[in-house]
Protein: VWA domain-containing protein
Amino acid sequence: MSDKELRTKSDKQSIDQFINEVRKLPKHGGGQGRLIFALDATASREATWDQACHLQSELFMATRDLGGLAIQLCYYRGFGEFKATGFVSETGQLLNLMNGVSCLGGRTQISRVLAHAVKETREESVKAVVFIGDCCEEPVDELCHTAGELGMLRTPVFMFHEGADTHARAVFQQVSKLSGGAYAPFDRNSPQVLKDLMAAVAVYASGGAKALQDFSSRSSPEVKRLTQQIK
Structure:
């Protein structure tokens, strides 16, 4: 076995060991959860941004019987622009915030999303981060390091991947795994899939792993695959 192969095997074993330790940490319980809803608002995502505006109400509707949810909208676009709103607890408030944003061309800033999530959850528990994006133009090591921090803080990141970019898929899978979250692809032509996935994460953030298991048992195959990743 070559030196490169030995290093790769060693790196994989270290990552797997870290993931196992993260998954031994306790899951969140009930009560109103705080969730960060982060979106790539660069030009390539304009069509799906409109779709997300229509679907975000599912985040609230799915959790009404579980104590509710407080959601912070977080997005990046243009030349280094990064914004995070306050936490809101009504669907109309979130919709108004999203309707005030238009997509602009620019590079991805996923590292800023993850760093912001670390900062927020150190101040007060954030039970989940939802990220919706289609590509990644940043150093992978930095993203994985911050994802690992979120894993130790018990703040899983759910990476919802639009499209079929292979590099983005690999990065998004690593980020979700290291944080204790899950990865799921979706197609803009199948809005029901994104709707179900968003509802599943909202249930998890509001009611914990048991609530997600219950929700998954009567939901779509995509939700079941998502749930299996965070056992």
